[in-house]
Automatic annotation (TrEMBL):
UniProt-recorded name of the protein: Uncharacterized protein
Signal peptide as annotated in the record: 1-29
Native source species: Acetonema longum DSM 6540
Biased composition (Low complexity): 34-54
Residue numbers spanned by region Disordered: 29-60
UniProt keyword terms in alphabetical order: Signal
Lineage, opening ranks: Bacteria, Bacillati, Bacillota, Negativicutes, Acetonemataceae
């Protein structure tokens, strides 16, 4: 009886020591290659994904601004910038807006428009508008000279309001106002 208990204990100890060694595979260990299976595993590892340059997705460059009337308006986050108004002591936001009209009968279903946005008075000014051909070439368009009297007020519920809100909200995050120095809790 005693020998049987010792054998059982030895078996349990061996199982407790051997089983974890067999079933635990280090994280960096690779499985042995199957010599008969010629199919390669092409699933990228997280390290492969990190080291491989990823193409820019359009959704990361262009942000949705407004949709309506069969058109979609998106603004370009890469060219969005703040500029100084040449006639006033204020900064404007400049943005390029892509207008997509899928059923447009012209040679292009995309129009690129350049806008200036006034942040203090909720106004917008169209600076240029160009057709974008399907091959990426810029087609005919119009370019306007900046005019301090050509600002248009934003009409509620329009595409202009949707574009204005999307662009200025994004600009507020991209270009936060500078923090005032020397103020503590707004008392000093």
């Amino acid at each position: 009886m005693r020998n049987t208990l010792i054998r059982i204990l030895c078996c349990l100890v061996l199982i407790a020591v051997i089983v974890p060694c067999v079933t635990t595979i280090p994280a960096n260990a690779k499985a042995p290659k199957d010599t008969q299976n010629t199919q390669q595993d092409t699933t990228p590892t997280p390290q492969d994904r990190q080291n491989t340059p990823q193409p820019e997705r359009p959704s990361e460059r262009y942000q949705w601004a407004y949709s309506g009337g069969g058109q979609t308006f998106q603004f370009d986050t890469h060219t969005l910038q703040k500029i100084n108004d040449p006639y006033r002591d204020e900064q404007l936001v400049e943005a390029w807006v892509r207008v997509i009209t899928p059923n447009r009968t012209a040679s292009s279903s995309i129009v690129l428009q350049q806008y200036y946005f006034r942040l203090n008075t909720k106004q917008i000014q169209l600076m240029s508008s160009f057709d974008l051909a399907s091959d990426g070439q810029v087609g005919p368009g119009n370019k306007f000279t900046y005019d301090a009297h050509r600002w248009q007020d934003i009409v509620p519920g329009t595409a202009a309001e949707g574009i204005y809100n999307a662009v200025t909200d994004y600009a507020a995050i991209k270009f936060p106002p500078p923090k005032e120095k020397g103020k503590f809790l707004g008392i000093f």
